[in-house]
User: What shape does this take?
Amino acid sequence: MAEYKRPANEQEFKENFKQKKPLMNDTQAYYESSRCLFCYDAPCMDACPTGIDIPLFIKQINSGNPEGAAKTIYDSNWMGNACGTICPTGVLCEGACVYNNQDVAPLLIGRLQNYATSQVIESGKQLYTPGRDNGKSVAIIGAGPAGIACACELRLLGYTVDIFEAKALPSGLTVHGIAPYKITNEEVLAEMEYLQNQLGYNIKYNSPISSKEQLAELEANYSAIFIGVGLGGTATLGMTGEDLDGVVGAVEFIEELRLKHSDVKIPNRVVVIGGGNTAMDAASGSARLGADEVTLAYRRDKSGMGAYSFEYELAVGAGVRGLFNASPLEIVGNGKVEGVKFIKTESTDGKLNTIPGSEFTVPCEMVIKATGQAKQGPFYSLIEGLEIDKKTRIVVNPDTNQSTNPKYFAGGDAINGGAEVVNAAYDGKLAANGIHEWINK
Amino acid sequence: MADLSVNFAGIKAPNPFWLASAPPTNSGYQIMKAFEAGWGGAVWKTLGMPTINVSSRYGAVNYGDRRMAGFSNIELISDRPLEDNLREMLEVKKHFPDHAVIASLMVDTRAEWIDIIKQVEDAGADGIELNFGCPHGMCERGMGSAVGQEPEVLKTIVEWVMDAANIPVITKLSPNISHITDPGLAAVQGKTDAISLINTVKSIVGVDLDTYAPYPVVDGKGSNGGYCGPAVKPIALHMLKDLAQHPDIMGTPISGIGGIETWRDVVEFILLGATSVQVCTAVMHYGFGIVREMEAGLLKFMADKGYNTIYDFAGKALPNVTQWKHLNLKSEVKAKINEDKCVGCDLCYIACDDGAHQAIALPKDGSRIPSIIEENCVGCNLCSLVCPVEDCITMEKFDDGTQHETWDELTQSDRIPNAWNDDRAGGKGHYVPEPIEALKTKRADKSGWKK
Assistant: This one.
């Protein structure tokens, strides 16, 4: 029995995809901010990949200065509002809160962060002005979190910035790849607009960079180039039946979900293959769209999943059934998907073995593959002298995010293989400073 | 179960929990409601001459998530017709003959005092309280704290009152003076039956940052208010002690007032010599029901300690409040951190390093459980005060209890030190870091972005 009714309109969609971290009201923020201890050398700050001065911004909220709090947040993290909502705060800042050590609930840092940033976004308060034009230009490939952060920082330093974005919207996975109950499109895009209005970088949408000629042009016209291209679409499994009607990639499924909402049609039975956070988002999303049976199939046991446990709990809460130690053999069907054939597995001495004769089929009308994203190797090969590691990540100097081709800098999933928005925001900022240092040396 | 009843200078009440003369005692309705809720007595909102009040009267100091840690008002004495108050007083006494109803009074001339005393006695008041404390409005007209600040005037009026009154008289004192014993002594010399204190403290609780007017704002302006609530309790306790220890005042019953909200507050006031307590702000904040917590807590305290009446422990802390010069200089405590309870907020570290004596160290390995540098710990308590965890930092006795030496003894025996050799400040083992060390400490404010 499905937990959720199929959403027929936007209102019902919003109910099914109710925000996990709703905006705090003034009273909530006042009482919550009062709880902060203002720890010395606070662990929450250390746990934040962008090092936001969390005790300071919480104190600012408590003293009636949310605008100042927003400035404190953006000084460290250009994706301040989005991160407050979508960061896995339980394993970052909130997980580090000292209250945890006495079994007292940690500060709701993410939601306090949103409380502050949403106010300046709504009012349009100008917190930053671009630096004096230094006559130099930088090109950014990809308007994701890394690219946007890099652009904001470069604008402060006086650079002209042109971002080339393949899609029609900014913020990358923030708007395309994160489950809708974590953040709304409106919220993401409002922050994007807020930043661009203040800092004035240019974004050229629907402008993929995919050829040597284009790169040569960028190299000729810009002092430096930042690569923030993220990862590609869902990788192929190389499995029989993958081309059947009804087989989709998780990345593509979530993007459709983010952009089309209740117009996305979901059949009754869905099988999601994978054990990462994207698999959880896809499974949870399917259930919230009203699918009767959503099976999350993972080839190892529960503890082996890459997803955060709270993400799995969230999916289970939405009605998803976990199927563990089940390795997919093939997707069966005739033109259309009819099921997934699995074989049971077991781990012995850390090695995963299939159990002969244990094959079984889970019938379904849709298969979502959440088994990783394709790498951007073909694109990287267009850039001369760009060193790539074994996992197809661009090799960079960790202090500057400069690649082995000195004109190119990089950040986000392109260098870490797939991490959080907050990591990308940090990378972009670091790269901007790296670019500035390199150009001025 | 203990007997909470009191006989306060002849005023009898079922318990020592009284309402102070203030907005909660503005009407018979409120006082009857309070008695129903468990209050043993009430001092009626001050009666006197006709007044006109302003709109916007109260202001507050909030602290963290707590509202009204301090409270201020610019309200005057009762603005309700005297005859209404007197009629209601009669009715309250009819319903509650065993509860204490005390009429707070404030008038000007001797004739007015004689007249109003007669009226409240006729209305059945069990006692009179003289309002010599109000620090706003009425004092500009020569009453309230204007009297409380002039011991000679105060004594004269007390004498008038004692001459006219047939019921017990309590003189309520203002804290807005240098030495509370001056008006206290004047009241006793005027033959008052009892004293109550403190009235409110002259204050400005805040300023509006847009209009630049002090709170509470009346049409763009403000006036000094009378400050009360939990924030003033320490001032009240100290003044209570000063009176209760004074050889010419001790023995005069004292009703304690000032920030009382919980049973602990009540016990502390009694331990320092009060034999009834008066409450206002806590009721204005939480309503009359707050008395239930006071009563339950007081009864438990008395049961635990084996006391039958509050007189069994009234004033019991007074012998322990002494002058600084009589404190034992050889006594030594040092902080101890319970590592199992420590959450690693490191507030003790930074409080000690920045605000005290550089006696707490952080581990060099980056972990967060601090440790006490015993040779530098002067036993100041600061770390234990800032620690957010219950019983995590305790102050442990370090001396063996065999030595005793006070500044007074040093003075008496002509041994006052003529050099700086306090062991706790640069003496044996204790060190103060060189100024340059300040520039080598890890910065707490990483100024936002870390690279």
